[in-house]
Amino acid sequence: MRLNSVRSLILAYLVGSGTWASAQAPTTPPAPASPQPVATSPLFFPIKPGTQNFLSGSMGEIRPNHFHGGIDIKTDGKIGLPVYAAESGYISRIKVSSYGYGWLIYITHPNGLVTTYAHLNHFTPAIGQYMVQVQYQKQAFDVDVTLPETQFPVKRGDIIAYSGNTGGSGGPHLHFEVRDKEDKLFNPLRYTFTEIQDNIAPTVYNFALVPQGIKSRVQGQFQRKMFTPVKQGNLYTIADTIPAAGLLGLEIQAIDKYDGALNQNGVQAMELTVNGETIYRHNIDGVPFELQRQVSAHINFPELKLSNKSFQRLYVADGNKLPIYETDISKGKFNIEAGKLYEVLVNLSDSYKNTSQLRFMMRGEDSGYYASGAPKVTTPKINYELAGSILKVTVADTAKTARNLDLYIGNYKYAVIPSYTTTAGSVYLYNLIGGLPDSVELTGTKTRFKFEQTIPPNTEMLYSNRYLDITFQKESLYDTLYLQTDHNAQDVFSINNPLTTLFKPAKVTIRPQNIPADKSKAAVYGLGWGKSSGFLGGVWEGDAITFSARDLGKFKVLSDTVAPTIKLVQKSPIQISFKVWDNLSGMASWRCEVNGQWLLLKWEHKNSTLTSERLDKTVPLSGDVVLTVKDAMGNEAVYRTKI
Q: What are phi and psi of 382, to 5 degrees?
């Protein structure tokens, strides 16, 4: 389907419906293509209403493994600001956790929408006392309760809690969301809050052109090529015409800012036009909560991990199921033909209709063989890399004229002709769809590959070798995986690399060579980047351990036999608090008793602190205190004191 709808689609989502409280209000926000302008917001701003506020995070902002699902409202760098209900309804769910959203309230509204308020420091007295009772009843700090309509009804503008820095928050603020009953996340700024001022158009830092086929070239080479445009007002451009060939995809690194704040926020919407024809649009709004992890397919994930730069793709990559796109039949990819000129335009829009434009020209060239120099080496050298399904082999040869490369698949040998030659070497391209090669060779210089099996997406599949088993779920992979595994003398197991992320976990069983003496204290850890390691757990069966992998990379079995460390911070009849550390697997549970009675301890992982809260504030703490802390491997530490 070619896109010929009106260009106002990109900006249409920027205004609210004006029908939030009406009897005829829809059960979900209006489609982004057809909202009606309103003079004031149909929602009550949840922090310092009626005054200018500032954001530290926007809807759709790129996070390491998810889209940011709402807005982060600054709270003047402090905790304890009143948090107001955005509209009338009832508190339908309350969650308390040390991680993620931290202390969280959900309000369900008559039209079916839900607003959420996260990272709270504490609740209003009635709600707070109810939650403490629930915690004492369940004898647990982490609780998640669903409430009836009659429990805590609220009116628009009621104070429901006080802002904080709980959970995964990186500083004091309120995280505010608008959802529908199916947990789709909508941009809160579609409701045109006057408390947020934005007169700044998005900023374009870089863009990149990415080959999408074996005949694709950018500046004569099969390479992802990055360009830095020059700003001219709200137009970003480059002076040179870019030579290219074949099917290409475009990526953009861009940010947005709000008035009075230095934070770099996400850009809400982008539209790609080639020679006057719109072939792609995205609007990061209406994102299903369960698909937030698919941000890994929306961006160039390896580039984010390697350079910490977020490049959004302006094409729909394989495996991307997000419902935020409108594209032509090529899903935003465009073909460059020899001898033709192409004008590429990208409109970038924020939530307040500020728009920037990226513009550059491209010239189609022939993708046939050429030589722009010859490498100067005395011994042939072979390097290779994988780009999607294309194996790119670069050979620095001693010969002045490029020779064919021998490629071996089982007992068969194939001659691969060079695609082009530069001073770095001759480049040979091979599509792995034709079969997984064992090795390549040129005049006695040989490089072996570790490709073991092709794992297609949307298929449940088991792979086994002598040292591991991997079961991929139907939705584990975004795209075809060319599986490579390894097991070294240090008992480190490798499955491809951390640049390959999964949507749904894979089940992995590894068989270490060095079996731990006490398996009950041994588990699998992801080695991650550098020297870091993350606890993954696992279940032993014989001399094999099975665990769930959310990402590929390196894994190792480590033993944790050291109990957590407990230090008393302060004690009084009013409150007692402790510092707790663990050396490896991390704290899993804790229990505190005073004279044999359970005492609630609130856990804050950011400062490793347990702090008491009494059920009855009129009864002082007094007597024998016993704190028991266990890590994930069951190592136990006990601390005793008296108050």
A: -120, 125
Same domain for 503 and 432: no
- Whether the Cβ atoms of residue 560 and residue 583 lie closer than 8 Å to each other: yes
| pLDDT tens digits for range 28-43 | 333 333 233 333 568 9
Q: Do 165 and 122 belong to one domain?
A: yes
Q: Which secondary-structure segment (H or E) carries 279?
A: strand 277-283
> What is residue 41's predicted lDDT score, i.e. its pLDDT?
63
How many structural domains comprise the chain?
Answer: 5
Check whether 1 has a pLDDT greater than 60: no
Question: Are the CB atoms for 32 and 148 separated by under 8 Å?
Answer: no
The per-residue pLDDT for range 605-643, each reduced to its tens digit, is: 999 999 999 999 999 999 999 999 999 999 999 999 999
Look at residues 299, 303, 336 and name the one whose alpha carbon lies nearest to residue 314: 299
Measured distance CA(57)–CA(59) in Å, rounded: 7
Q: Domain range for residue 428?
A: 381-448
The whole-angstrom distance between residue 182's C-alpha and the CA centroid of its chain comes to 21
Instruction: Write down the pLDDT at residue 17.
Output: 33
> Whose CA is closest to 271, among 550, 32, 64?
32
HSE (CB half, 13 Å, CA atoms) of 343?
Answer: 7
Q: Alpha carbon of 464 to those of 102, 195, 471, 484: distances in Å?
A: 40, 57, 9, 12
Spatial separation of the C-alpha atoms in residues 442 and 415, rounded to whole Å: 10
Q: Are 305 and 265 in contact (CB under 8 A)?
A: no
Same domain (yes/no): 208, 136:
no
CA 216, 221, 223, 227 torsion: positive or negative? Answer: negative
